[in-house]
Amino acid sequence: MRKLKAVAITKTVAQMCVKAAHILPGDTTLAIKKSAAKENWRAKKILNLCLENADIAKKELIPLCQDTGTAVLFVEIGSDLCIEGDINKAIESGVAQGYKDGYLRKSIVSDPLFLRKNTKDNTPPVVHYSFVKGNKLKLTLMLKGAGSENNSRLTMLTPAATVEDIENFVLETVKLAGSKACPPLVVGIGIGGNFETCALLSKKALAREIGRFNKDKRYASLEKRLLSKINKLNIGPLGLGGKNTALFVSVEFAPCHMASLPLAVNIGCHSNRHITKIL
């Protein structure tokens, strides 16, 4: 049984928060470059400005976006790993430390309805745990901004719904988002499970590397078809028109009850901030 001290988790999470806020992932950078090469002059200029923004953020350690988001973590714990200490406190302390060290905007309020008082350290984070084989700890962090999150949607379809119905809901969601979610977008889709599971699947889909399609050929085909249809909407970068409304579409799916067909669409902006570390 391998042992891992909780303090190491705190240090790693803090570093991940700073890096994710300041450095655009390589897959997103490459996707924007490829999109710019295919665009008209105005959309190309906007995409090149996105790349310039990313370059300045990296060189000068300035956040990619003023909305430094909610810290969302997917944590995979190996069955042969013993964590010495409280992993929940370790992760929360890491987020607090990272937002302090990186001078990142603290956006979390303790009460959602009445007080809306800022917690002043961007905690608590949203953490999803799963248990896997092995003796390692895998941490995937997303910094999820409110602009794109606010344009996400969920619906409970019936088994009578067709693939076309699913595609239409996704397209409608992107149309409603328009420029508000800072396109070009990354679109995460969750299909199946139940009410909460499909939302979680859509969030997990956003963390997948751009360009890595679903292993199931049927769902990979759906991803490619949706990406093509979304990019024909002509919403374009920042909603000013163009061939690239989305950089990528990713779909995750799970078994569901025979009487339902849950569907969630989680919208991500062009500043698709995610990072993974293995301890």
Please, could you describe this protein's structure?
The protein has 279 residues and is of the alpha/beta class. The protein folds into 2 domains: 2-22 and 64-144, Dihydrodipicolinate Reductase, domain 2 (2-Layer Sandwich), CATH 3.30.360; 146-271. Helices cover 39% and strands 25% of the residues. The protein has 8 helices and 10 strands. It has helices at 6-22, 26-37, 41-60, 87-101, 146-149, 163-177, 195-206, 217-231, and strands at residues 2-5, 70-78, 81-84, 126-132, 137-144, 153-157, 185-193, 246-256, 261-268, 274-278. The chain has a 4-stranded mixed sheet. A 4-stranded mixed sheet has the order 6-9-7-8. Strands 1-3 form a two-stranded parallel ribbon. The radius of gyration is 19 Å and the shape is globular. The model has no long low-confidence stretch (mean pLDDT 97).
What is the rounded Rg? Answer: 19 Å
Instruction: Please identify the structural class as seen in this structure.
Output: alpha/beta
Oligomeric composition of the shown chains: single chain
Spatial shape: globular
Q: Major beta sheet, specifics?
A: 4 strands, mixed
Distance between the termini: 14 Å
Question: Strand-residue fraction?
Answer: 25-35%
Number of strands: 10
Stretches with pLDDT under 50, minimum 5 residues: none
- Trace the largest sheet across and list its strands: 4-2-5-10
Query: How helical, in percent, are the residues?
Result: 25-40%
Helix tally equals: 8
